[in-house]
Amino acid sequence: MIDWYFSHIVLIQSTLTTLLLALSVQVPLRAGVFSFAGVGCYGIGGYIAAIGMVHYGLSTATAILLAAVAGGVVAYTLGLLIQRLTGLYLAMATVAFTLIISVLVVNGGDLTGGAAGLFGALGMLDTGHLLAVAAVVVAGLTFTEIGPLGRRVEAVREDPELAAAMGIDVARYRRATFAVSGVLGGLSGSMTVLLRSTVTPDDINFHLVVLALTIIIVGGSRSWIGALVGTVIFVWMPEVLAFVGEWEDVVYGVLVAAAAVYLPGGVTGAAVDGYRKYRRKRREAADTPPDGPSPHPAAAGVGGDS
Amino acid sequence: MAQHILNAVALGSVYLVFALGMALAWSTIGILNFAHGATFMFSAFTAHVVTQHVAMPMPAVVLVAVAAGALIATLTQVLAFGPIMRKATDHRSAELRILIGGIGVAAIPLAIAERVTASAPFGFRGSTYQAQVFEVLGLRMTTTVLVIVVAGIGIGVGVWRWLATSRQGLALRAIGVDSETASLMGVDRSTLALGTMATSGALAGLAGALLTFQLGAISPASGDQLLIKAFAIVVLGGLGSMGGVIVGAFVLAGAETFVLAMNQGTWVDAVSFGLIFVVLLLRPQGLFGRKEVRRT
Fold first, then answer.
1. Domain boundaries, position A60
2. Are A176 and A32 a contacting pair, CB within 8 Å?
3. Are A261 and B84 an interchain contact pair (Cβ–Cβ within 8 Å)?
4. What's the total number of domains in chain A?
């Protein structure tokens, strides 16, 4: 167990930081806001942490905190600017925002290290710290998924007009998701950089946007569990797919396309649907009086097959 | 100065052919194909592989790339977008799933091309075509540039007029405005969708062949960059306006050439990203777009 942990420590740590990145896209999406600003804030956070450590000698905790706050502020401001856009237009505006950040840091001179990036920003982080941050974030997000708040978020996503008619301030919820996604992106970016000790402009690319999106679509976009499932799938897939070797990327593409076509709710959505169907079958089987040769356990067994 | 303008026009013509394919599918059948860049790259790659075995003249190479592009886009439609459009319950989830499906599909040709070429740029060295250099009014021109500009502007204007005047163009625009009413009027959506995707893929293939002839070689990753640029062009011109795409392509190419000419090479990419952002902020419907960008 201990051996396994130490030989997989990089994967375990990147699972936790990637989870935060995926959540930074999932939180707005859950409120019907198709925004990738969190990925841009991942870049901002990474650079702020690296600049803070390398140029100003900040402590690890201060650097991460600063990165999270900066991410939140920038994303909230962006949200104010582009809140009237929706759908694909909003998505592409935030993708453009993310990619502009990478151009900015290439041209940042000594402060950002230009195209070569910054080196030597090794923070004092271990898996325990990452787990603690992830646990706090997940606990906080759980509150937005259950109870009255969860239902309000769902209303904002499914029917903004209805939500507004019920007295929910839709615009405020949307702006709040921008801020939350910025904080999560900032956390994820700063912790990733402080674990790796380097950051380059190439780290903030279109592929990162694609990764975050595919994680939550394949995993499931309705709760943090979906983000976790998707993160585990995509971070660990290279390890598991070692047997297909060089064809790994082809398998990746096929899986993503197949998930888009056949699993609209992602893996967790399909699992939840399957479980509900199973429960319904069981209940129906239990409700109908066992007439003659159809005993109860057999009926439940039949239900479980579907 | 005049040389820069000529370069901008050549670059703009390639952008135009590529963006036109994307805009055609997006503004009519509502498919924003994220595999369009990969289709572009893989068509050129297919032509590259063919020229390695058979020495071919330029028109044959272009034809191979066009056919490959049409085939890839048709397969994408049949295997991914078609099933999604049939299954999706509402417009927004269909939009999202088509986006993801395109991203997934795009990863497959990219992975194959990167594996075969080891991510190195590839060109048409096996082709018998040799570019002729000549001077017109003191400008250095090549036959490649001439072909690109004529093809780009010809196809741009052709598609624009065809969509505006032909019967099928009318049907396609009708789907773009209101697909339910259009199908009540007897428009066969799925057949037209297939034809549109094939045309769109053929345009991507043409753009791939032309750009490879122009630059000598392209890298497997070049499709993604072009995708974002095409998006900037469509947003600038306005979704639903083919004339807007023509203007957008040349404006973007002009702006990028200008930034390059000012020796600010590292800022070139910021032009398209900034353009997307500023246009969406100030004029979300673009320069010539229909006035109904969905807002809440």
1. 2-204
2. no
3. yes
4. 2
Q: Is the dihedral of CA A128, A133, A139, A141 positive or negative?
A: negative
pLDDT, tens digit, for every residue of B38-50? 999 999 999 999 9
Cβ neighbours of B93 in A, within 8 Å = 264
- Inspect the interface and report whether the beta carbons of B107 and A249 lie closer than 8 Å: yes
In the structure encoding, which two tokens stand for residue A264, read together? 């609209």
Look at the alpha carbons of B174, B178, B179, B183 in this order and tell me if their dihedral is positive or negative: negative
Q: Is the pLDDT of residue B290 over 60?
A: yes
Does the CB of A162 have a partner CB in chain B at under 8 Å? no
Mean per-residue pLDDT for A13-31?
92
Domain total of chain B: 1
pLDDT, position B144: 86
pLDDT mean over A72-95: 89
Q: Specify whether A145 is located in the same domain as A293.
A: no
Half-sphere exposure of A33 (CA within 13 A, CB side): 32
**pTM value > 0.95:** no
Q: Give yes or no for A34 touching B (CB within 8 A).
A: yes
Helix pair angle (A248-262, A224-240), 10° resolution: 150
In a domain, B281, yes or no: no
Is ipTM over 0.95?
no
* Other beta carbons less than 10 A from residue B13's beta carbon: 29
| Residue among B108, B273, B293 minimizing CB distance to A96 | B273
Same domain, A197 and A283: no
- Residue A61 shares a structural domain with residue A143: yes
- Min CA distance, B105 vs chain A (Å)? 6
Q: Which residues of B touch A258 (CB under 8 A)?
A: 104
**Residue A37 within any structural domain of the chain:** yes
- The pLDDT tens digits of the residues spanning B129-147 come to 777 777 777 777 788 888 8
Q: Which of residues 269-298 of A touch B (CB under 8 A)?
A: none
Q: Indicate whether B12 belongs to any domain.
A: yes
B 209-248 residues with CB < 8 A to A: 224, 228, 231-232, 235
| Shortest Cα distance, chain A CAs vs residue B19, angstroms | 16
Q: Is the CA virtual torsion B177, B179, B184, B188 positive or negative?
A: positive
A73 and A192 in a common domain: yes
B115 and A CB contact within 8 Å: yes
Mean pLDDT of A205-232: 88
